[in-house]
Write a structure and sequence with these properties.
Blueprint lengths: L26 H4 L9 E4 L15 E5 L3 H12 L2 H14 L7 H14 L2 H10 L26 H16 L2 E4 L16 E3 L8 H7 L1
Parallel strand pairs: 1-2, 1-4, 2-3
Bound molecules: S-adenosylmethionine.
The site of S-adenosylmethionine (SAM) has 19 residues, from loops.
């Protein structure tokens, strides 16, 4: 039986990006530590947006220095859900993407690197190794194929639809800036900045030590 398409009320939203270092599983530990009332919440190293998307605040600002990622979130925010899903499923058909078709993945990766159509990045991530987002110095996506493991499955589709619906409902903004260039000057005591920068050790290791 396929998954119901809409998330239950009061259940946390999971980023469709399966982000490395994503905090979805830690939300129930992190969120009680935040102030009860927040005017603007800044997710300064937004990544998969697992934290900001689940925050109750008047406004949420998602910041990340990975421009391609921020552009993808802006598409999610500003496009019709059916149009997004159709685009993804058409690409999967066109390049015959599957858990085993490495040739199709590589052809599609070349196509993406030539055309850089923002939504195609999501399709690539869906089929790439560990769903990682990796670009080389020439701005080419170079993550290998996620053989036998990665695909745009029902769970990812469910996470994507619910993520888009939540993004489109809330007041939020996306900024592609390095954290040190972020303009903090307008913030007041009612705002909150959450920082989850990249690190060397795995998240469970760090949190067990705290
Ligand atoms: C650990 S991840 C955040 C995961 C996120 N909290 C989640 O739950 O999905 C760290 C993010 O910081 C971003 N990043 C790295 N250097 C940055 C910088 N100088 N300024 C802003 N963001 C940066 C990376 O692109 C990555 O997306």
């Amino acid at each position: 039986m396929s998954k119901p398409l809409f998330v239950k009320k009061n259940k946390n939203i999971k980023s469709p990006l399966n982000y490395i270092g994503g905090k979805y599983r830690l939300l129930n530990q992190i969120m009680p530590l935040f102030p009860r009332k927040i005017d603007t919440f800044i997710d300064l190293f937004a990544g998969g947006c697992n934290v900001g998307i689940n925050i109750k605040a008047n406004k949420i600002i998602f910041n990340d220095n990975l421009t391609y990622l921020i552009e993808l979130f802006q598409i999610f925010k500003n496009s019709n859900t059916t149009t997004i899903i159709n685009h993804i499923e058409n690409r999967i058909d066109e390049f015959k993407l599957s858990k085993t078709n490495e040739k199709g993945y590589k052809e599609f990766r070349n196509f993406y690197n030539q055309h850089k159509i923002t939504l195609d990045l999501f399709v690539l991530i869906a089929y790439s190794f560990n769903h990682q987002i990796r670009f080389n110095n020439s701005h080419e996506f170079n993550n290998p194929f996620g053989k036998n493991r990665s695909s745009f499955n029902d769970t990812m589709k469910y996470n994507l639809i619910n993520f888009i619906l939540k993004l489109q409902k809330n007041d939020n903004e996306f900024i592609d800036n390095s954290f040190e260039n972020f303009d903090f000057s307008q913030l007041t005591k009612n705002d909150f900045v959450y920082c989850d920068p990249p690190y060397l050790f795995s998240p469970p290791f760090l949190w067990n030590k705290l």
